[in-house]
Predict the structure.
Amino acid sequence: MKRILVTGGAGFIGSHLCEKLVKEGNDVVCLDNFFTGSKENIRHLLSYNNFELVRHDITKEYYIEVDQIYNLACPASPPHYQYNPIKTVKTSVLGIINMLGLAKRCKARILQASTSEVYGNPYVHPQKETYWGNVNPIGIRSCYDEGKRVAETLMFDYHRQNNVDIRVIRIFNTYGPNMNKEDGRVVSNFIVQALKNEDITIYGDGSQTRSFCYVSDLVSGMVKMMNNENDFTGPVNLGNPSETTILEFAKYIIELTNSNSKIIFMPLPSDDPLQRKPDISLAKEKLDWEPQVHVREGLLKTIEYFEKII
């Protein structure tokens, strides 16, 4: 049994991670300021003796003795991280400085949940970890993209300078239960609109591509990365390499929900990436990991969740 700190633990991905770690018998401390996280996501864990919930913002220092730190704290959808871009940058940069300081002090291993957005609007397809990216440093998405890039920089600087034990993952589009129905991401937007028989909104002409990974697969990869003992620091891509256009995906959601929704097109937002597909060769080689949940199975579970909360 390990004592594990999960920042952003009441969020979409964090709540699934907390549940897995708790049920494995670890002593889990969930840290969240509830800007985008929700108590409902982790309410069922409060009865466990090995789970603790703390309201805290990681831009402020936090002291605890732990063996491992999963740093997931940061708003991840464009409407949320653009709502207060300065706060978003602070969460990524000041937050990781505080968590790395904690890891250094108590000799904990720390995993940074980075993002495919470090690749920006890529010139390389699919995206490999060796690609340095094409990111606009002054655009409306920069608070998130560049904040995550700086966080990766700090992880490796603390590793080289202070010998902090680090792991870095790059998360590609992930979906599943506990998503916020108003987070503005593709899967939640389309499912909610389809269930309400509202127009499904596509930004651009729908030819842009995404690859969608079910949350249980992602969490499995995160835990494998944290617990690998072969000194593999990453960064490593975690995502589903099955690629689809946004238009095809919208039609699929309409089919699965038996919706009467029509598809409408709106202008593409600034700096929105046109292609997104992970090369997961490194994850297969180093972690023996690849997604197991078929998109149909994952979407049906996600649709069932949204039917309950709408």
